[in-house]
């Protein structure tokens, strides 16, 4: 199966000398299917920090961060598939002086534990978000913010718990079943996918090409971020790798859930996204037919605006939350 389609079905430059020592070793080591996988314990030893916390939700250990003043307005930030809560690192730094920022690694990703067979069969992805917020005693969010499939989870939360979500901020979030047929991919990215298909291993070059392809300007994605994607995606194989990723699926139930949403919604879109271009903004607007929609299109930005232009994205969050609900 095409490894790109596997990734997207789930929706979906720092010098080496300045990287942490472990990442320097990884950057210079031979990278092949024989390259050792990283266990969750090894990833935690490498990437956990003083803000890292853990909570068991529905039998799964969730890595999360809860930063900023306890009594400040709460912003929930949800990453997309193949990513981690580090998507929001720079944005959290910018906003946590004024807001309480909660973010987490979806089970099976980042530093969270694996998805059990029982959870894969019985737990909805949105229930992880609910359980974490309930465990933290959060009754009301100033905004739920999500990118890519993280936006899908934020939408499902707003549909299920409208009293909890004051506003939605969605970035490059799918609303229809994922279709990649319109994408014109680079030869280097196609070669990396072919190699991954043959070997069953997504090497550093695969993630390097992946992030460059989906960026409006590849130079904005740092080498550190590229190394992190490689590390987190060579985590020991999971039995249920996308079970807790919120998905559109065939679109039927997703359309029902989106129609339930009355939460004021802000679409902050990378218009240079090769997967979900401007037409996707119009599509999700139609599905969110009962919500007041505001939009901003950034034509120079790709699929991951929080990674590519975090300072700009943080300003949009702050503007929307502070201004209330702008007119359409």
By oligomeric state, this entry counts as: single chain
Major sheet strand order? 1-2-4-3-5-6-7-8
H and E order: HHHEEEHEHHEHEHHHHEHEHH
> What is the rounded Rg?
19 Å
CATH topology: Rossmann fold
Summed up:
By secondary structure, the protein is α/β, with parallel strands linked by helices.
What descriptors fit this protein?
328 residues; alpha/beta; Rossmann fold
Please give the structural blueprint:
Blueprint: H1 3-9, H2 21-28, H3 40-47, E1 53-57, E2 60-67, E3 74-78, H4 89-95, E4 100-104, H5 117-122, H6 125-135, E5 143-147, H7 149-160, E6 168-171, H8 187-199, H9 204-214, H10 223-232, H11 252-260, E7 265-270, H12 278-287, E8 293-298, H13 305-308, H14 310-323
Parallel strand pairs: 3-4, 3-5, 5-6, 6-7, 7-8
Antiparallel strand pairs: 1-2, 2-4
Characterization of the model:
The chain is of the alpha/beta class and 328 residues long. It has a single domain (3-323), classed as Rossmann fold. The protein contains 14 helices and eight strands. Strands 1-2-4-3-5-6-7-8 form an eight-stranded mixed sheet, sandwiched between helices. A hairpin with a 2-residue loop joins strand 1 and strand 2.
């Amino acid at each position: 199966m095409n490894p790109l389609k596997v990734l997207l079905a789930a929706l979906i430059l720092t010098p080496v000398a300045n990287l942490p020592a472990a990442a320097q070793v990884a950057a210079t080591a031979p990278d092949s299917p024989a390259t050792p996988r990283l266990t969750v314990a090894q990833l935690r030893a490498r990437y956990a920090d003083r803000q890292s916390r853990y909570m068991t939700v529905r039998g799964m250990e969730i890595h999360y961060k809860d930063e900023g003043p306890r009594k400040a307005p709460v912003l929930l930030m949800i990453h997309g598939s193949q990513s981690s809560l580090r998507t929001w690192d720079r944005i959290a730094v910018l906003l946590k002086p004024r807001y309480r920022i909660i973010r987490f690694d979806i089970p099976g990703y980042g530093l969270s534990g694996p998805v059990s067979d029982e959870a894969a069969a019985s737990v909805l992805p949105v229930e992880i978000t609910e359980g974490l917020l309930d465990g933290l005693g959060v009754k009301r969010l100033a905004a739920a913010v999500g990118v890519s499939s993280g936006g899908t989870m934020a939408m499902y939360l707003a549909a299920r718990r409208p009293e909890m979500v004051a506003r939605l901020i969605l970035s490059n979030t799918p609303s229809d079943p994922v279709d990649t047929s319109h994408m014109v991919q680079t030869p280097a990215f196609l070669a990396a996918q072919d190699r991954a298909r043959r070997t069953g291993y997504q090497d550093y070059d695969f993630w390097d090409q992946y992030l460059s392809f989906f960026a409006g300007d590849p130079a904005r994605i740092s080498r550190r971020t590229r190394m992190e994607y490689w590390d987190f995606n060579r985590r020991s194989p999971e039995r249920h790798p996308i079970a807790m990723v919120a998905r559109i699926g065939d679109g039927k139930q997703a359309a029902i859930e989106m129609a339930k949403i009355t939460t004021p919604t802000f679409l902050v879109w990378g218009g240079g996204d090769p997967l979900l271009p401007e037409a996707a903004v119009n599509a999700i607007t139609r599905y969110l037919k009962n919500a007041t929609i505001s939009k901003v299109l950034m034509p120079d930005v790709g699929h991951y605006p929080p990674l590519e232009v975090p300072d700009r994205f943080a300003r949009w969050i702050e503007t929307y939350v502070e201004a209330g609900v702008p007119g359409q």
